[in-house]
Automatic annotation (TrEMBL):
Residues 1-19 form the signal peptide. Residues 479-680 form the Peptidase M13 C-terminal domain. This is Peptidase, M13 family. Its cofactor is Zn(2+). It comes from Shewanella violacea (strain JCM 10179 / CIP 106290 / LMG 19151 / DSS12). Keywords: Hydrolase, Metal-binding, Metalloprotease, Protease, Signal, Zinc.
Length: 683
């Protein structure tokens, strides 16, 4: 799963992690009589809406939809994800079948990349030889200078090292790009896997040791036990030195700009000059360090690990990063550890799915352009624009009416709201892949070329004006995001399908689905971290002290509320880790309900399928969250995912909203009931 990392990752906040298969397609057609869009067939009639709004709406589906063997979880996102996957497969097959493709053309790249992934005869023959040169370079390191230099060149190839960087708008000068340096370097999903002594983590650490030894033996190591020991020692140190995910969320604490001299002083024994030369960043004069104390500890300890230990660590990370692209023995070992042990997945995906996912990663906008042509309807964009306007209007009214905020802060909040921009469907300017060379017979070579291409594209941004047309998700992605340094909300084409967005349905279910998603993304601009940025994308405090204190108090209440939810026996939601997303959900659904109400212009909502518009809206919200998880995956997400598990997103949000109580006549004694003083209202 940590195949060659996507380098240009910003700090955009997404809606949810889409993962993973077949369901009847609901045709997106404009009908004369609008349907409700409520999928009553999924209801569990034995559960009352007033007792658990997730199971009442989704219970039948959850009980009757097994997780496919090649997936860690399965829900509404997954169904659309599979639809995108099938669409891309068709596009790739059609493209590959075209005769006489010009060398370097989009068609050649799409056809040949897929062919290189599917050409298992060549891949088997090559074994791990595509990595021989780099393994040889690592073996030749003589001193710590060489190790620093190797880290630079490996990072350019997309290999994980103890830290990474990306280029994004400078959060304190958002009209310029800056380099952000961040902690990295672990194989297990989170630092706590190394630091906690629960049986599960002890077992995961043992599994890591076995995995390292096994895969390095396959890669020709004569000392694979020693390699495993080196990896364990270095990664344990890294885990001890890292900031927690909660600490790393803090937008102010993780903004520490320094020039090269200051950075070198911080990383003491690590030769940043040597590293920069091989990483091709020797001309970068300033960096923003996200976790300074981590870099200090890393620098101090760097020379205390021997050259041999670092060689082991780097060789393993090279092999691990590329394992999925090598022969079957590597693919199998990688799957057994990363997917089976850590996520509970039973079977490997069919190879064609791996190849399609890889195409989405490497040449996503080349296939995306065709995806949009074939699957995206312009009328969807039009209706989305209307919904976005309605949500912004709803937010405007909400801010005006907030009882806890002073007029001064309200003015500043309205200013920020007025500066939101949005993108729908697909980029107006497509990414230029001219410099990416793809061949049909060398998968690892293609990935190396891709990693270098992405890396160069990223560095080329420095010193240039901000590219406001850039997208951080492909159009075929089932997700959405808010980018705080651009103050923009972005909705790829693939999320504009039922149950999120139903062209054939009445507005109510759409306000509860995609409307609340729009509201969620806008609310990220006003969540515990997003609210630290102004409308121009700069970290600038626009709050009065009293308002900030009240905002934080309400956030703490919401955090405590979610921390009360037990997702697995003895394992609760991390209220602080998920606070931004929970504020996003609460603000999003609250404002969606308000926007729907405003859209009625004082008329009562139409009743369809025996449900009022207000009821359909909330059901629309709950039905997008149906999802079954494997226990391993849910446990992993509780520690690493900033989103709450689906159950609590679906039921935890509405129980804070008065309109939900009215819509379903929720009363004291009902399990969804919260006493008015325990309900959290933020936006
Ligand atoms: Zn979000």
């Amino acid at each position: 799963m940590n195949r060659v990392s996507k380098l240009a990752l910003g700090i955009a906040l997404s809606l949810g992690l889409a993962a993973c298969s077949n369901e009847t397609t609901t045709p997106v057609v404009q009908q004369i009589e609008k349907v409700s869009g409520v999928e009553k067939v999924n209801f569990d009639s034995s559960v009352r809406h007033q007792d658990d709004f997730y199971y009442s709406v989704n219970g039948h589906w959850l009980a009757n939809t097994p997780i496919p063997a090649d997936k860690s979880n399965y829900g509404a996102f997954s169904v659309l994800y599979e639809r995108s996957q099938n669409a891309l497969k068709k596009i790739i097959d059609e493209t590959a079948a075209k005769p006489n493709k010009a060398e370097g053309s989009s068609e050649q790249k799409v056809g040949d990349f897929y062919a290189s992934y599917m050409n298992t005869d060549i891949i088997e023959k090559l074994g791990f030889s595509p990595l021989s040169d780099q393994l040889g370079d690592i073996a030749q390191a003589k001193d710590h200078q060489d190790i620093a230099s190797l880290m630079g060149s490996l990072l350019v190839s997309g290999v994980q090292i103890p830290f990474g960087f990306y280029v994004n708008n400078d959060a304190k000068n958002s009209t310029q790009y800056a380099v952000y340096l961040h902690q990295s370097g672990l194989t297990l999903p989170d630092r706590d896997y190394y630091l906690k002594d629960d049986d599960k983590f002890v077992a995961n650490r043992a599994a890591l040791n076995t995995y390292v030894a096994d895969i390095m033996t396959q890669a020709g190591s004569k000392n694979s036990e020693r390699v495993a020991d080196s990896v364990a020692k270095i990664e344990t140190f890294i885990a001890q030195s890292q900031w927690s995910r909660v600490e790393s969320r803090d937008a102010n604490n993780s903004y520490n700009k320094m020039d090269r001299a200051e950075l070198q002083a911080k990383v003491t024994n690590f030769d940043f000059v040597q590293f920069s030369a091989s990483a091709d960043i020797d001309k970068v004069t300033e960096v923003i360090v996200r976790q300074p104390s981590y870099f200090e500890k890393f620098g101090a300890k760097f020379t205390q690990f021997s050259v041999a230990q670092w060689q082991d660590y780097l060789a393993f990370h090279l092999v691990d990063s590329y394992a999925e692209l090598l022969s079957k023995n590597f693919v199998d070992l990688h799957f057994d550890f990363h997917s089976k042990t850590l996520m509970g997945i039973e079977e490997q995906k069919p190879r064609w799915k791996m190849a399609v996912d890889a195409s989405d990663q490497v040449i996503g906008e080349l296939v995306g352009k065709e995806y949009v042509k074939q699957y995206f309807k312009p009328e969807a964009k039009q209706r989305m624009e209307g919904l976005i306007q309605a949500l912004i209007k709803g937010f405007e009214v909400s801010i005006d009416e907030i009882e806890w905020m002073t007029p001064e802060t309200k003015v500043a909040a309205q200013e920020k709201l007025a500066k939101f921009t949005y993108k729908i469907g697909y980029p107006e300017k497509w990414k230029d892949y001219t410099d990416l060379k793809i061949t049909a017979d060398h998968l690892v070579g293609n990935y190396q070329a891709y990693a270098k291409f992405e890396y160069k594209t990223m560095l080329d941004k420095l010193g240039k004006p901000i590219d406001r047309t850039e997208w951080h998700m492909t159009p075929q992605t089932v997700n959405a995001y808010y980018n705080p340094v651009m103050n923009e909300i972005v909705f790829p084409a693939a999320i504009l399908q039922p149950p999120f967005f139903n062209m054939g349905a009445d507005d109510a279910v759409n306000f509860g689905g995609i409307g609340a998603v729009i509201g969620h993304e806008i609310s990220h601009g006003f969540d515990d971290q997003g609210a630290k940025y102004d409308g121009d994308g700069n970290l600038r405090d626009w709050w009065t002290d009293a308002d900030r204190a009240e905002f934080q108090k309400r956030g703490a209440q919401l955090s405590a509320q979610y921390a009360g939810y037990e997702a697995l026996p003895g394992k609760h939601v991390n209220g602080d880790l998920t606070l931004g997303e929970n504020i996003g959900d609460l603000g999003g659904l609250t404002v969606a309900a308000r926007a729907y109400h405003l859209s009625l212009n004082g008329k009562p909502s139409p009743v369809i399928d025996g449900l009022t518009g207000e009821q359909r809206l909330f059901i629309g919200w709950s039905q997008v969250w149906r999802r079954n998880y494997r226990d391993e995956e849910l446990g992993r997400r509780l520690m690493t995912d900033s989103h709450s598990p689906s159950h609590f997103r679906a039921m935890g949000t509405p129980r804070n909203i008065p309109a939900f109580y009215q819509a379903f006549d929720v009363k004291e004694g009902d399990k969804m009931f919260l006493a008015p003083e325990d309900r959290v209202k933020i936006w």
